Amino acid sequence: MKNLAVLCLFLALIPIASAVCFVPGENAEIRETAVFCPGIYNIENGIKIVNDGVIVDCNNSVLNGNGIGYGILVKERQNVIVKNCNVSNYEIGIYLDSTNKSILAGNHLSKNKYGIALFNAFGNDAGGNILAGNADDKIAFLPAQAGDGKGQAEMQKEGASSPHQVMEEVIRIKKPFLKENEVLDEVNYIFSKYFDLAQENLEIKRDVFYNESDKSTRIILHLMPRKALLNVSVYEKIPKCVSAYVNEILIETSGYEVVRNDPLIMWTFPRLEGNSEISYKVFRKIDGECKNLLLAFGIAAGLEGFAEEKSQSINYMLVISFAMAAAIVLYYINRNSGRA
Description:
CATH topology of the largest domain: Immunoglobulin-like
Oligomer: single chain
CATH architecture of the largest domain: Sandwich
Number of strands: 23
Distance between the termini: 141 Å
């Protein structure tokens, strides 16, 4: 009878044990197999699976971001399973970085830049998922730089770029029909008219922060115009020791164009007044020598103050002309009245 009572108690506790579920939160690290509690979770900084052999069942829960970062990151792991997850509004929905022999199944990825991205990842099964409404609805197989035998020191041999070299590159991409001498003529024209204007009136400072928790480096450009600038383009030339391809970068500031994939990025501002920031993130640590190879500069079409000064000058000339005309008229009126 006593044994029967113990058995009944054990059976009664089974539903309680099975009812335990995981509630995901900001920067959550999952170290063991987990089943999510059903729900919608607005998480700006997604979750990270940090042990091998972990199974994550989202139980059809929704992870909803704000357009940047990742929803679920699996980095340097193997034999991981991620299933039944709905992931939306991230730069990358589910990201396998240097992760092997893992499975993604039954997941729904939408409204991300990339639904699923794999970098330096081998032997994984990412079939059986739904990718719909993302900027790219194909599984992104990012180029595997880590396994090519080149460390940062070797990649730094490419040397630092100059603004003039970058603009030559831009013109060749934008206008491939130009001859070499025409490219150089256009670059010289841009530098004499627009580059020098930005150099005199736009200060750009850079901050670089490493985040130990997700092994990422955030790069911030501080734009500090001295006057209101019009039609500004800010170029960021990124060396290969930071990122080999633009697909490895999580760009946090909108309004950009990828000029070249290896990478050269341009942000545009119709009007730039007051301090602004541009930021992006790479999932690696950057040493001091590599930071020095980063290059940012601006091109500006004009100053708002120039337009105001020109308008004021025109108004001043009109006043002078009107006054002179009025003086001439009064002179002739007085002259004629004197004769009368």
